[in-house]
Amino acid sequence: MKHGKGVLKFQNNYKFEGEFKEDEINTKETIGVLIDKTANDIEEGEFVKSNDPHIGFLQTLNSIYVFDFKEGIVRKTIR
Fold first, then answer.
1. Contact predicate 19/26, CB 8 Å
2. Which domain holds residue 55?
3. How far apart, in whole angstroms, are the C-alpha atoms of residue 41 and residue 37?
């Protein structure tokens, strides 16, 4: 069970670094860092839960990232 600072790795070369509580991203400590290992890109943002437990969102200054926990991937959308 994830609890405290940790890293969540996705299948498409993204990884999220942030706070976890009871095996989920801690939404009270919402700021996290998303790293795109392919593009050497790092963005900081706020994690927001969805009504669907398999989906979450990271809102950064320029983009919104969709975390698909079921598929194990991150999708980027541009604002």
1. yes
2. 4-78
3. 7
* Token pair 């398999």 in the structure block, residue: 54
* Tens digits of pLDDT across the chain (79 residues): 788 999 999 999 999 999 999 888 988 877 899 999 888 889 999 999 999 999 999 999 989 999 999 999 999 987 6
Residues 6+ apart with CB under 8 A from 12: 73, 74
The C-alpha atoms of residue 22 and residue 36 are separated, in whole angstroms, by: 25
Domains held by the chain: number: 1
Taking the C-alpha atoms of residue 41 and residue 50, their distance in angstroms, rounded to an integer, is 25
